[in-house]
Amino acid sequence: MLTKTASPTTITLWNGREIPRLGMGCWAIGGPFFAGDTPLGWGEVDDDESVEGIHRAIALGIRFFDTASNYGAGHSEEVLGRAIGNRDDIIVATKFGFATDPETKQATGAFADEAFIRRSVETSLRRHKRDRLDLLQFHINDFPLEQSDAVFDTLEALRAEGKIDAFGWSTDHPDRAARHAGRKGFVSIQHTMNVFEPVPEMIAVVEQKGLISINRGPLAMGLLTGKFTADKAVGAKDVRGAALEWMVYFKDGRMAPEFAARLDAVRDLLKSGGRTLTQGALAWLWARSPRTFPIPGFRTVAQVEENAGALEKGPLSAAVMAEIDAALGHA
C-alpha cells in the first residue's frame, strides 16, 4: 500500500520503493487504433520521439510508466519495451480487458475470463520484454461488481505465480474501488481526476482503504495545458474528435465551451508560483490528497520536461486551493 513520506512529491509504493509522485501515461504514444471508423488513439506518433521522451523522463527521475494492452493495438507496450525492457528500477503498469487486432488496429471486444486474462498477461510480458509485470490493472470501468470477484481471483493467482507484483482496477466507481481493497496485492485505483473533477467520493475510499490514487486525465485530455483555443480542432485520428459519451472536455474535436469558461476562472490561480498551466494542474492534484499520483500523457520530449518540471515546485498552497474551490464551486 501507500506510505506517506516527508516529501510531498515522493511516494512509497507497495514494494517499499520511494519514487517521484508523478508517472507518465502512454496512451498517446501507442498511435492510432479504431473501433470501426471511430478513433481511439491520439493520432500519428513518431516512435523515435516517444523513446527519446521515455529516456528523458527517466533522466529527470520519473520511475513509473502506465499503459494498456490495447493502446495502439499493443504498440504502446512495444514502444515501452523498446525503451525500457527489463530494467528493475522502472515500474511498468499496464491494463487488460480490451482486445485489439494489431494488424488491422481494430478493437475486437471486451473480455474478462481467466483464459483471456492469462493470454493478455503473456502478451504484455513479451511486448514489454519483462520477466514480471509490476502492476496489472483491470481496464473495464463499469464491469459488474459481483462478476468481478472471479477476475481478481485470477489476479491473485497470477501474483502467487510470480507473473505480476501487484494489481488494481481502472474504474471511476467508488463501490468497485472498495470491493477488492482487502485483497493482498490490490494496491491501486486508476480513475479520472483533475481540477474540474475532484471526485471526493473516490478519494474518500482511496484514503480509507490505503490505496494509491492513479490519476488519469490529470490535464483534462489536454484542456489544462492551455494550448487549445475555441477554433483549434484536433486531428482526424484523435479520440478527442470522436462522438463518445464519456468525451466531455471536447465536442466535435474542439474544447467544450463550458470547460473553457471554467478554465478561464482558474487559469491565473493554477499558474501561481511561476508554474505553467500544466504544472499548476498537477500541483492541484498533489495538494488534493497525499495519495494522488498523476500520470499525464506525452508525445514529445518537451511535454515530458514540462510535466516533470512540476515536481520542483510541489503542491499548490492551501490558500490557492481554497480560491480554486471557490471559483469552481467545489464543496
Automatic annotation (TrEMBL):
Q: Which domain of life is it from?
A: Bacteria
- Tagged with keyword Repeat: no
Q: Which SUPFAM superfamilies match?
A: NAD(P)-linked oxidoreductase (SSF51430)
NADP-dependent oxidoreductase domain span:
22-327
Q: Give the InterPro entries listed for this entry.
A: AKR_Detox_Biosynth (IPR050523), NAD(P)_OxRdtase_dom_sf (IPR036812), NADP_OxRdtase_dom (IPR023210)
| Matching Pfam families | Aldo_ket_red
What keyword terms does UniProt attach to this protein? Oxidoreductase
Q: Which PANTHER family match?
A: NAD(P)-LINKED OXIDOREDUCTASE SUPERFAMILY PROTEIN, NADH-SPECIFIC METHYLGLYOXAL REDUCTASE-RELATED
Q: What is this protein called?
A: Aldo/keto reductase
Q: Which organism is it from?
A: Rhizobium croatiense
